[in-house]
Amino acid sequence: MVHSVLKTDGNPSEAIHSLLRRLLDEGIVDALLVPLRVASGDNTVQTLVRDARRLEGMDVLAPVMPVTTARLVSAITMTGIKERVGVVMRDCEIRAVVELVKLQQAKADNLLIIGMDCLGTYEVPDYADLMRSGADVEGALLAHAIGGQPQPHEGKAFRTACQMCEKFTPSHGDLRIHLFGDDPMERIHVEVADDLAARLGLEPAAPAQARENVVAAIARQRTETRDRLFASFRERTKDIAGLQAYLSTCIRCHNCMVNCPICYCKECIFRTPIFDHESEKYQMWAARKGAVRLPTDTLLFHITRLNHMVTSCVGCGMCDSACPSHLPIATMFRAVGQEVQALFDYVPGRSLDEPPPVATFREDELEGIQ
Amino acid sequence: MADTEFEPRIIAFLCNWCTYTGADLAGTSRIQYPPNIRVIRLMCSGALDPVYVSKALLEGADGVLIGGCHPGDCHYQTGNYKARRRVAILKSILKQLGFDEDRIWLRWISASEGRLFADTVTEMVAALKAKGPNPLKGAWDI
């Protein structure tokens, strides 16, 4: 990787955007998957762009993640593509792509991953509110890039998953855009794969000196938040009654599953005939227990989803964002995941070479389980 | 009083090639063991999705026994190793969520080990009696 610097002349978005535009203009990629601002101005949506003229509304700094790009990468690469696609992603999305590739739900062969430092994201309605109010949302966040600890707008909060995210800098990618540790109004640092740097004519430069400390300080503060949330989750779910209380307002809509990048099953077990019961069965259960909550199997749904995917949970928090009852599902998945992943010394998204724990085994392990 | 003593109900998921046949052997050998077990035959312990184990416990089963081939002896080469990982994950999750994960037993019992099967069931019934009934028995709101 080569370290280089983009001069921004007071307009960091434009500096990044013109670099990305060159990827398409110069034929380095055939398409870009990037966020474009919608006509109403209050949201950005990930968009697959082949015609460079369509990049006009590009806005890679918008602190909002309407869906996780990992799902989109799966959709556009799953059955193979000849075109080379550049994809702009936050690290949680990149880590989810790594998991999906290993789960054979995406192909990385023709991807050019463009990783961005993440300044935090708002829930979509909060972001839309801020944009409609005319706030300088990106400018306010970028002002914190040099010193660290980006703060949300007054009256708004970052998504809980972002508040406890300690992995917010790109861990993979041919092009990594660094915002932290220097003044984006003057320059933005990039790390670029050697061949790409040569094609783009990027000159080597010294990395931002302050970056390491700034990133470490944010990570430390996020880790504290994370541990506080984990402790509160563990306190609340010490027994089954606690777990029931934690999930008491679940309406069984399956939104958490639908929006999870790792829940890839084309036919989820909870949407198969296994859970289409004969009418008489409901009477039987009500008779056996005296009463039965409907729809049934709320705890079973969450416990099973944990079993199926918690080993690969990257903590993107899309489950939280999708929940109409605002249940802290991501905190549950990250807290439970921490212990389960530790069983196998597995870090989701760390490496393409480590098979997911449920897809492999060792002969000499877990002796105590039997 | 013997007639009101708690009798645990165990759901057993047994591999066709080993533990299920071991259970058969216990029967044909006329080895006595407590009748607290309800057996579901699987083609492999590796074919058991944790959803069925969780469902049994959530519906009030007092214990779940998973029987598979000894390591290295799987009819399909590696199913039991995969089962072992899944059970480890399931137990970790249930423990963290406030369940008693010791109600789930994974045991390697071969087709020739009828005695071991009977002893395992006897031992499990005793352990579950000591624990008492599954607190979720009769729970309407899970």
Explained architecture:
- The complex is a heterodimer of chains A (370) and B (142).
- Chain A contains 14 helices and 7 strands.
- Chain A is an alpha/beta fold and 370 residues long.
- In chain A, strand 4, helix 3 and strand 5 form a beta-alpha-beta unit.
- In chain A, helix 2 runs parallel beside helix 3 and helix 8 crosses helix 14.
- The longest helix of chain A is centred in the middle third of the chain and has 26 residues.
- Chain B has 142 residues and is an alpha/beta fold.
- Chain B has a single domain, classed as Rossmann fold (3-Layer(aba) Sandwich).
- Helices cover 39% and strands 16% of the residues of chain B.
- Chain B has 4 helices and 4 strands, in the order βαβαβαβα.
- In chain B, helix 1 crosses helix 4.
- The longest helix of chain B has 18 residues.
- In chain B, 55% of the residues are buried.
- The chains are: A alpha/beta (370), B alpha/beta (142).
- At the A-B interface, helix 9, helix 12 and helix 14 of A face helix 2, helix 3 and strand 4 of B.
CATH architecture of chain B: 3-Layer(aba) Sandwich
For the record, give the distance between the C-alpha atoms at the N and C termini of chain A, rounded to a whole number: 47 Å
Query: In the CATH scheme, what's the topology name of chain B?
Result: Rossmann fold
- The overall pLDDT average of chain A reads 96
How many discrete structural domains of chain B?
Answer: 1
- Structural class by sheet pairing and helices of chain A: alpha/beta
CATH class of chain B: Alpha Beta
Distance between the termini of chain B: 32 Å
Q: State mean pLDDT of chain B (0 to 100 scale).
A: 96
Quaternary class: heterodimer
Strand order of the largest sheet of chain B: 2-1-3-4
| Number of self-contained structural domains of chain A | 2
Rg of chain B, Cα atoms, Å: 15 Å
Number of helices of chain B: 4
The portion of residues forming beta strands of chain B comes to: 15-25%
Tell me the structural class of chain B: alpha/beta
Radius of gyration of chain A, taken over Cα atoms and rounded to an integer in Å = 22 Å
Gross morphology of chain A is globular
Count of DSSP H/I helices of chain A: 14
